[in-house]
Design the sequence.
DNA sequence: ACGATATGTTAATAAAACTTGACATAAAGT
DNA sequence: ACTTTATGTCAAGTTTTATTAACATATCGT
């Protein structure tokens, strides 16, 4: 009923030299299936995974994940 | 082995007119025990819960939760 | 055409987040 | 002294997130 979370992972990956889902997963310590699920909005990541992803892309967490109330 | 997450909930609650854990929990839809556990660092919240908490305090998510690599 | 890489998706299982209910202590108000 | 409010903590249970493995299609380079 309340808000949901949008993400820009796909865009950020392609701007980061077309990094693959598998490569991103390896960098943060999750599987490619997990990245695929997060990217497609099947579920949202843990806070820790979210921080690691934003760290890889060198941006703020809220530039990767956006809360819409 | 990698980093951990620090939070400023206690401080933010006291700055927000000494809002109780129970009140914060009610506002974001979790129990007071969950707030206590998050606040004390027993575990980190879901990304959704983290967004809701920062929304209540009117600050950015990364002002509530800080990632230390 | 063939082999390699990237991604989509599903099913079964494991781990983490969260709930409920309980019992405890401490501080504040009356 | 008594009641109320705030918080700490624990155990058992449910829900959500993450893992692994499998099978699928599409694209790219040779």
Sequence:
């Amino acid at each position: 009923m309340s808000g949901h979370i949008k993400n820009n992972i796909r865009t950020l990956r392609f701007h980061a030299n077309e990094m693959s889902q598998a490569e991103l997963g390896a960098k943060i310590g999750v599987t490619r299936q997990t990245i695929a699920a997060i990217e497609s909005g099947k579920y949202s990541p843990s806070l820790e995974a979210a921080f690691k992803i934003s760290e890889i892309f060198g941006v703020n967490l809220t530039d990767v994940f956006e809360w819409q109330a």
Notes: Residues 30-31, 33-34, 37-38, 43-46, 49 of chain A lie near DNA strand D (CB under 10 Å from a C1'). The interface with chain B takes residues 2-3, 5, 29, 44-48, 50-52, 55, 60-62, 65, 67, 69 of chain A (CB under 8 Å). The CA atoms of residues 24 and 35 of chain A lie 8 Å apart.
